[in-house]
């Protein structure tokens, strides 16, 4: 039994170090989602899509604080500290479950959001004096290697195309390997053939999956931490031999 107790105590200490690392990784994932979504924010209007990212950054910050509480409680062998550690860890675990649920909900809503907004964004394109929305379109078409909503022919229905009257699409539709592309529809082989809507949806859903998998992974780690902390807490309060083990004594 003594070996089991010592093992669990060591395992809890190891978990606390993992918790500190997890806090940094979660904050990184949340920040990555924010930065990436900023490049695509013109294609969806529901700001609540970022709620999972906000929560996961908050959870990462809280995990760092929890790790400090757990370290202090383990070093001092404080029953109150360990109990507080377990309770807060349980609350964070519940929060991460909420993040997973919200992630799946908003992941399903991404396609409707993009479909609702993308035509408005393309119709507002101004190639002469690009605004933020226009820069977003050029960025997405270059980054995702796409052109138009479903294909390059969608540009023919935009205000910008009708005003320019040059039978061309933006240069961001040109394949990256071509240096002499002018965007002319008379040379469709020079243009990206795939539309942007499906690729934007896929990209945003992939980002949301990062949040979901990160939350699931660290929720599993937290279950292990709660189990070890609970065992240490219970054995410390019920078994006098554990008190002597901690103190370095013997139990007759």
TrEMBL record:
Q: Does the keyword Cell inner membrane apply?
A: no
Q: Which GO terms describe its cellular component?
A: plasma membrane
- A Pfam family: Tetraspanin
Provide the topology term for how it sits in the membrane. Answer: Multi-pass membrane protein
Q: Which keywords has UniProt assigned to this entry?
A: Glycoprotein, Membrane, Transmembrane, Transmembrane helix
Superkingdom is: Eukaryota
Q: Residues of the signal sequence?
A: none
Q: Which SUPFAM superfamilies match?
A: Tetraspanin
**PROSITE patterns tied to this protein:** TM4_1 (PS00421)
InterPro entries for the chain: Tetraspanin/Peripherin, Tetraspanin_CS, Tetraspanin_EC2_sf
Where are its TM segments located? 12-35, 47-70, 82-106, 207-234
Localization, UniProt: Membrane
Subunit organization: Interacts with claudin-11/CLDN11 and integrins.
Functional summary from the UniProt entry: Regulates the proliferation and migration of oligodendrocytes, a process essential for normal myelination and repair.
Tell me the protein family, please: Belongs to the tetraspanin (TM4SF) family.
- This protein's name: Tetraspanin-3
The gene is Tspan3_1
């Amino acid at each position: 039994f003594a070996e089991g107790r010592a093992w669990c105590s060591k395992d809890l200490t190891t978990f606390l170090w993992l918790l500190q690392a997890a806090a940094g990784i979660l904050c990184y994932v949340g920040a990555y989602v924010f930065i990436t979504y900023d490049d695509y924010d013109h294609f969806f209007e529901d700001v609540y899509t970022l709620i999972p990212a906000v929560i996961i950054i908050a959870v990462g910050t809280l995990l760092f604080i929890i790790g400090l509480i757990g370290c202090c409680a383990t070093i001092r062998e404080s029953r109150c500290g360990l109990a507080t550690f377990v309770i807060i860890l349980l609350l964070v675990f519940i929060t991460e479950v909420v993040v997973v649920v919200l992630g799946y909900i908003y992941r399903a809503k991404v396609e409707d959001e993009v479909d609702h907004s993308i035509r408005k964004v393309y119709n507002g394109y101004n190639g002469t004096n690009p605004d933020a929305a226009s820069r977003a379109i050029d960025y997405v078409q270059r980054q995702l290697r796409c052109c138009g909503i479903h294909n390059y022919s969608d540009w023919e229905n935009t205000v910008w195309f009708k005003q320019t009257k040059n039978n061309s699409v933006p240069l961001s539709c040109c394949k990256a390997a071509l240096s002499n592309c002018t965007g002319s529809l008379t040379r469709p082989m020079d243009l990206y053939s795939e539309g942007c809507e499906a690729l934007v949806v896929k990209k945003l859903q992939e980002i949301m999956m990062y949040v979901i998998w990160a939350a699931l992974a660290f929720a599993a780690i937290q279950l292990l931490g709660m189990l070890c902390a609970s065992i240490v807490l219970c054995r410390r309060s019920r078994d006098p031999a554990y008190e002597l083990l901690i103190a370095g004594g013997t139990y007759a």
